[in-house]
């Protein structure tokens, strides 16, 4: 008989794991967070939130209700459920890199409570749970007396409408018992939980979600390039097409998608497709287009300024999207480096990112030759830029 879930350990207390920990704590679970980053760990141990989507007061309340955080993986001992919320990036060849996730699973195994439910929320390619994670966990634990389930994260930082409690959750286990336990665990704090027939179904579904976005955004980015050549307002084109009440969904141009999901997850699906001999060329091409977008805006800067040597350029929005401090896969960062390589004197401004690579955010002013809007908070006072030319990479939307 599986043990009831009372104590929960969540490995990774970042954009995915921390909201999960707070929601689980609020639902009455005794939660232990495991975090290896010393800055994030120190903040949490002082009841301070290291991310924008969780306020410090919520952490303090959770701590009063038994939430604790540690860097020691051995602190998972005795927990009835163990959840992994760790990054799964791409390597330098755009191949899946599971080093962090598999390393943590291997370290956790010896401390796993018999009968525990283990859930992975990290993004992985189809077959990973069955072919890699299950055998690794059984080997490191020295037994197979555990239940394993997959429930891919669906976190959209700084989204005012959708959060961990109202975004539908997918679950699937290795057997009916694991599926039911995972489903019941999440139902205590998620309003809508959907159980599916196999882990492989939702491993693939997670990748489909973000591949769909990548392909469509990359298409719109190519359309934006065409519209620039034609002298047509791409945002007006999209607005016109969106009046059709069926068969069209608007996507918007950018300097390239960023963050921990959209540039990464589709390549997990593309990699698996190549492994089995059925390449998904649309994903691979969309990835190429996305990676090339900073170069397009570098060329646009040259069109506007000519030789970029010593030209003063301000990039507005360093993070991958407005309202967050996350610069992972940021198109702004890539564009900044390209502009500097071309000889420009580049500064950056971001309302939330305070420091980056030892540099600080630069105040808005009219002392530049060009301003490049990569993303912008709606509260930004762009009037401070005066008459400085503005290169808008995101169509002017807020």
UniProtKB/TrEMBL annotation:
Keywords: NAD, Oxidoreductase. Residues 314-393 form the UDP-glucose/GDP-mannose dehydrogenase C-terminal domain. GO terms for molecular function: NAD binding; oxidoreductase activity, acting on the CH-CH group of donors, NAD or NADP as acceptor; oxidoreductase activity, acting on the CH-OH group of donors, NAD or NADP as acceptor. InterPro entries: 6-PGluconate_DH-like_C_sf, NAD(P)-bd_dom_sf, UDP-Glc/GDP-Man, UDP-Glc/GDP-Man_DH_C, UDP-Glc/GDP-Man_DH_C_sf, UDP-Glc/GDP-Man_DH_dimer, UDP-Glc/GDP-Man_DH_N, UDP_ManNAc/GlcNAc_DH. One of its GO terms (biological process) is polysaccharide biosynthetic process. Pfam families: UDPG_MGDP_dh (PF00984), UDPG_MGDP_dh_C (PF03720), UDPG_MGDP_dh_N (PF03721). SMART domains: UDPG_MGDP_dh_C. The keyword Phosphoprotein does not apply. NCBIfam families: NDP-sugDHase. This is Unannotated protein. It comes from freshwater metagenome.
